[in-house]
Design goal:
Blueprint lengths: L2 E4 L9 H13 L4 E5 L8 E9 L14 E7 L2 E6 L5 E7 L9 E4 L4 E6 L3 E9 L17 H13 L1
Parallel strand pairs: 1-2
Antiparallel strand pairs: 2-3, 3-9, 4-7, 4-9, 5-6, 5-8
Amino acid sequence: MTAVFRQQEPIVVVDDEWIARVKEHARLEPLRRARLNLHHSESDRVQEMLIAICSDSLIAPHRHLGRSETLHVIEGRALIVFFDEEGREVRRLRIGPAGGGLPPLYRLAADTWHVVIPLDEVVVIHETAAGPFEKDRAPPPNWAPTNEEGLRQFIDALRRD
């Protein structure tokens, strides 16, 4: 289970202490990621999170049916790979913090398959997605591996290309 911190304050401030806390918990979690929810409820129309993802965390290809997603990198670099319906790679996007020569932010406003691959020891992102949150709304693609070893090989191959 991923460490999830929740806030109920009307003003949530993300400072260096919060970033360090989320990173530390990501390192300790079996899934190697942790997040601070900035939204108050899974039913909120806007879902905002500070997420720390370790380089060995496995995020399977997924898509968000009828919802947009924005990622803004705070620390580290990540590779986003986009796929068509048959699992063919259609685009790669490397993102990183502002001032580092890579785009620090992207928004995906389509039901496009994609995967987020951390390129540094820990990547910290600010994610905004349309809500409400509905777990497993979109089933996994039939072309992606579903077991851990297969997914690790799939991600490692994308990272090397």
